[in-house]
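Hi everyone, sorry if this is the wrong subforum. Our group has a chain we'd like a structural model of before ordering constructs, and none of us has done structure prediction before. Sequence below.
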Amino acid sequence: MGFLFRVLVNAFAIYLVAEIVPGITVASVQAALGAGLVLGLINAVVRPILILLTLPFTLLTLGLFLFVLNAFCLWLTAEVVKGFEVHGFWAAIFGSLLVSLVSWTLSAFVSDRGRIVVITRVGRAASPAGPPELP
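Answer:
Right subforum, don't worry. Here is the predicted structure as tokens:
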């Protein structure tokens, strides 16, 4: 269930980003679903290898090069999936930032098993003696 949810979240994020960012187009819902699937696979297989290979440069740029890697993964997805296109470097950068933001936001409230997680704050009970006295 978790993998299917991730594919759907990625597809929704890609479809939404295509509406917002000029230079990114999605021809159909099927293309968005395919792009969500391929982006998930690229992020799981290719991205860790790229991070390892570019680690010195990533450290030198204090992690900013990871934005370029994310944009490359989005561009690579567009090269594989027919009906999903990314035109230009800046479109890939902004698109990857927004896809990451939307994906993270939607995934933050769902557990790995696909269930919605309600975040509650539980406070400690007050001690029987009351609050401590200040010196």
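For your construct planning: Residues 2-107 form one domain. The longest strand covers residues 24-26.
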